[in-house]
Input
Amino acid sequence: MNNEQYSTESGAPAKAIEQPRAYHHGDLRNGLLEAARCILEEQSLNALTLRAVARRAGVSHAAPYRHFPNHEALLVELGVEGFQELRQYIIEAAKISGPESDRIANIGAAYMRFVAKRPAVARLMFGSQLPNRDKFPALAEAADAIGNEIGSALHDTNLGLAVWSAVHGLAMLVLENVIDLGQRRSGLHVLPSRAEILLRSLFSTKRD
Output
């Protein structure tokens, strides 16, 4: 008999018992991470608990522990996936042909597109909330890959470090609301074009 057919003593239909959502093994992990990202972006890091993730994903409270033994492990995985996603943005941006200044501007704009899309994840990736990266090789490797990718795209390790430092510093100043590039009125979607303009100005003396 369907749960909806049961009635209370008053005669009113009883609510159907909500069943946990079914996931295949690989899908469960992805579903939990997506739920965690949503909580992080929509609420705050303080709201991001394994119990909250389970509730958001529609699974039992025990389900997250199949993939993440504790809260720290969840944060680390969010950081790793964040760095991997950012790296893909940079790889795509580096495909542009043309002078060095165009590649710098394009990489900076791509970096800011990621920050505008996932501001809370970006804060987590580079903030003090993530544990010592030496303890988690996958996290350290994913973070190091960002600088390596930018340096490789520009064929200059030192220039890559300078560009990364510049665009990342700009991103953090915006996210902490220290400076206004138009995002206070128009939203974070303005950041890529603003970053492109500023990076062209900053690195205009570089040879093309």
About this structure: The radius of gyration is 22 Å. Residues 71-93 form the longest helix (23 residues). The CA atoms of residues 166 and 202 lie 9 Å apart. Residues 1-20 have pLDDT under 50 and may be disordered.
